[in-house]
Amino acid sequence: MIRIRQLTKRYGPHTVVKGISFDVQEQEIFGMLGPNGAGKTTTMEMIEGLRKPDEGSIDLFGVDGVRQPQSVKAMIGVQLQSTALFDHLTVKESIELYASFYPQARKTSELLQAFHLQEKENDRVKHLSGGQRQRLAIALAVVHDPKVIFLDEPTTGLDPKARRDLWDVVFQLRDEGRTIILSTHYMEEAEILCDRVAIMNKGEMIDVRKPAEWIRNLSSQNRITFLLSDKTYLPELQRISGVTDVKLDQDDTVTLHTNELSETLSDLILWAKEKHLPLNGLGTRTATLEDVFLAHTGERLSEV
Ligand SMILES: Nc1ncnc2c1ncn2[C@@H]1O[C@H](COP(=O)(O)OP(=O)(O)OP(=O)(O)O)[C@@H](O)[C@H]1O
C-alpha cells in the first residue's frame, strides 16, 4: 500500500500542495483529477522522489519515500512524455538502451509483445503513430519490472481507438499485479479506467472515491426533459417523487432534477397518462464524473 500523510509543498509564499493525505491500494488504478495548477503533478513527483516535500510522509510499500528516494526509484516506473523519446533510434534499440540502465531488465521480445510493438521493432521512433509512441513510452517505464507505475495524462491527443488500446495496456499492467497512479483530463477515461479517483483543487484533496460513488453523491444531477407548453402543470411536477427542482425553458422544455431517476420517471409517466399529456421529446441524463468535477471545482474538466 502507498500511504501519504499531510504532504505539503511550498514555493516561496505559495503552498501548492496543502497537507494532503490518502492511500493507494496495491493493484489499484488510482486516478488524479483536477484543474490546471491543482497540484497533481507536484504530488505525483513527490511520491516519485523527484521533488522533496516540505512536510509530510510517504510510505511506499514499506519504503520511506521522503528519506529513501533512491530506493523508491527502483520500485517505480514513470512514463516519459512521448516527446522525450529518441526519434532516431528504432523501437527495439530504445528498449535495449533503457534496459542497459538497470542491473536486471525484462526481455525486449517480451516487452515488444506485451505492448503490441513487434511489427514496429525495427521502425525508427519518429515514424510511429501517437498511440505507438505512448505504448513505447510505457514499455520503457516498465523495463525494470516496477511495482508502481505513474502515468501523466497517458492518452492526451490520442484518437478514440488508440485511447482504448492504451486502456487495455493499463488494465494488463494492473492484472500483472502492478499499482498504477495516473492523471487525466478525460472524465470518461477516469470512469472506465480508475478503481478510485482523487479530485484535487488548489492544492487540496477534495476526496478520494470510486467513480460511481462520486456520481451517486451528486445524484440530484440526474435530469428528465420533455416538452410542455402549459405552465400551470409546474407545481404538480414539483410534487412527483424524487424531484428536487423543476425548470421551464423558453422553448417549452421542462427539466426535472431528481435524485431517484427511475422512480421519478415511472411516476411522471403515470401522471402524464392521467392528464393525457404526450411527453414529447422525453429524454434522461444521468450525472457523470464531469458533473461531479464541475460541482466540486467550479470548472469543466473538458475546458481546463
Ligand atoms: N518549480 C516550481 N516553482 C514554482 N511554482 C511551481 C513550480 N512547479 C509548480 N509550481 C506551481 O504549483 C502549482 C501546482 O502545479 P502542478 O503542476 O502540480 O499542477 P497540476 O495539477 O499538475 O496542473 P496541470 O494539470 O496543469 O499539469 C501551480 O500553481 C504551479 O504554477
Automatic annotation (TrEMBL):
Protein keywords: ATP-binding, Cell membrane, Membrane, Nucleotide-binding, Translocase, Transport
Domain of life: Bacteria
SUPFAM superfamilies given in the database record: P-loop containing nucleoside triphosphate hydrolases (SSF52540)
Matching CDD domains: ABC_DR_subfamily_A
Family: Belongs to the ABC transporter superfamily.
UniProt cross-references to InterPro entries, sorted A to Z: AAA+_ATPase (IPR003593), ABC_transporter-like_ATP-bd (IPR003439), ABC_transporter-like_CS (IPR017871), ABC_transporter_ATP-binding (IPR050763), P-loop_NTPase (IPR027417)
Protein name (record): ABC transporter ATP-binding protein
GO molecular function, one term: ATP binding
Originating organism: Polycladospora coralii
Family annotation (Pfam families): ABC_tran
Residue intervals of the ABC transporter domain: 2-227
Keyword Iron: no
Entry GO CC: plasma membrane
Keyword Transport: yes
Locations listed in the record: Cell membrane
